[in-house]
Automatic annotation (TrEMBL):
PANTHER family in the record: ATP-DEPENDENT ENDONUCLEASE, OLD FAMILY-RELATED (PTHR32182:SF22), DNA REPLICATION AND REPAIR PROTEIN RECF (PTHR32182)
The species this protein was found in: Spirosoma fluviale
Domain named AAA+ ATPase: residues: 33-377
InterPro entries: AAA+_ATPase, AAA_GajA/Old/RecF-like, P-loop_NTPase
Gene Ontology biological process terms, A to Z: DNA synthesis involved in DNA repair; double-strand break repair
Protein name, as recorded: AAA ATPase domain-containing protein
SMART domains in the cross-refs: AAA
């Protein structure tokens, strides 16, 4: 599914506003859905609200059978009276906030009840709805929401969850009971992993993390038994080779090389592929193991956002990400958008940001700048500065920051200008040299 537009009628600070998420005329991808979208705007203009609007729609679409029944297409494989042989590519998403209810309907805006606030989400084409109904691939996601608090969930894979008992028992369990509990556990995490819509960062995602890292956990559980089997059943001359094959099959290696190490290298860190008691452990490039308790919030955020994007099937997935720059130094921000989009190259990303460095990674048509008009309503326009431009230019042109310096800096710049006039007017050579020295020092300090 790809979203090609949003129309908002009357909701909070939004009044009859439209967003066109397609590449403009003359662009090499003219008419195609934007691959990535960046919402920019001062606090209160609705960046996070827009992400929530899209997310509510995606959550509604996961119940695809109910949705298609409401559209009048079929029920349990039996066709109903359909207004058209083709499925709708335009879906209205109506929210009655007084009842906290969400309805989906193929209708036009003029038919909506005037006392309801509405949003209209435009999908790419008829095939989008067919995709929603396709349950053949449970790993494919309709949407993934990465909340700003996601770094807190890193404990799910940085620490040993097996030490946290799920149930208590005062008797020794039989093999049958152990297998039954394992089957229940496997079913729980597989059910969590098969959800078409995944929200991470709400501290209720342990089963999802267990699903994402189940290959690593399974490898760790089987290692002792497998190596014992090799030693017992393999000719001595081949034991070392077979053990090395098992070590090389460690799923941590793939995750490290293709997902995590490219970004961790900027911290001079890497995944500790030797394994241990936890799914993910880090070490320095020199091999010194890092205590997970001391990892920064920024490092934790990178780990917890990168793993799901890499492990899930994100073909045509809508991925929503609020403030990806959180807790990250500017040098990491510079390549962040390219990094995330490389992990999910066929997904559609929606970002909300306050960072000009992040915003610089987008084409002007991919930036949507929100601002208040004189009536306090939100207006929107596309970006101006070219992709990859100096963040200071982004601040001036897209963030509308006419003055970048604080008041003290502005005062010093005015002093710098005044000194130039005093130097020209000064006739005493000694005083003139003093003024020149003062101006030179001031210019060097502020890079005027």
């Amino acid at each position: 599914m790809k979203i090609t537009g949003i129309e908002i009628g009357d909701y909070r600070q939004f009044k009859n506003i439209k967003f066109d998420f397609t590449y403009p005329e003359g662009h090499p991808k003219e008419g195609q859905p934007l691959e990535k979208v960046c919402f920019i705007g001062q606090s209160g203009t609705g960046k996070t609200t827009l992400l929530n609007v899209i997310w509510k729609l995606i959550e509604s679409l996961q119940d695809w059978e109910k949705f298609l029944i409401n559209q009048g297409y079929y029920k349990l494989g039996k066709e109903l009276n359909s207004p058209s042989s083709k499925l709708y590519g335009r879906i209205s998403y109506t929210t009655d906030f007084s009842r906290q209810s969400i309805n989906l309907a193929a209708t036009v805006l003029t038919e909506l009840n005037s006392n309801k606030e509405f949003f209209e989400i435009l999908l790419t084409n008829d095939e989008d709805i067919e995709q929603i109904a396709n349950t053949n691939n449970n790993t494919k996601k309709l949407g993934i929401l990465l909340k700003e608090s996601i770094s807190r969930e890193a404990d799910a894979f940085l620490f040993d969850q097996k030490d946290q008992p799920q149930t208590f028992s005062d008797f020794v369990k039989t093999d049958t009971q152990i297998e039954k509990e394992k089957a229940i556990h496997d079913d729980r995490i597989n059910t969590a992993g098969s959800k078409k819509v995944v929200s991470l960062g709400d501290m209720r995602s342990l089963s999802i993390w267990q699903y994402l890292l189940k290959e690593i956990n399974q490898y760790d559980d089987e290692t002792v038994q497998h190596i014992t089997k090799i030693v017992q059943n393999t000719p001595k001359s081949q034991v070392a080779e077979e053990i090395q094959k098992w070590i090389d099959s460690n799923p941590r290696i793939d995750l490290a090389e293709k997902c995590l190490n490219p970004i961790l290298n900027k911290f001079f860190l890497e995944v500790d592929t030797d394994g241990g008691n936890v799914p993910i452990a880090l070490r320095t490039r020199q091999g010194v193991k890092i205590n997970s308790s001391y990892l920064s919030t920024g490092t934790r955020q990178l780990l917890s956002t990168a793993i799901p994007l890499y492990k899930f099937n994100t073909k045509d997935t809508v991925i929503l990400f609020d403030e990806p720059e959180r807790s990250l130094f500017p040098d990491i921000q510079r390549g962040l958008i390219d990094y995330y989009t490389s992990l999910a190259p066929e997904a559609q990303f929606f970002f909300a940001t306050h960072s000009p460095i992040i915003a610089s990674a987008f084409e002007p048509c991919e930036r949507f700048i929100l601002s208040f008009n004189e009536q306090g309503e939100v207006e929107v326009h596309s970006g101006i500065a070219p992709e990859g431009d100096d963040p200071n230019d982004i601040l001036r042109q897209d963030f509308a920051m006419a003055e970048l310096m604080l008041q003290k800096g502005l005062e010093e710049y005015e002093r710098y200008r005044q000194l130039a006039m005093q130097i020209r007017a000064e006739t005493d050579e000694k005083k003139k040299n003093q003024l020149i020295a003062e101006r030179l020092e001031l210019g060097n300090r502020y890079n005027f």
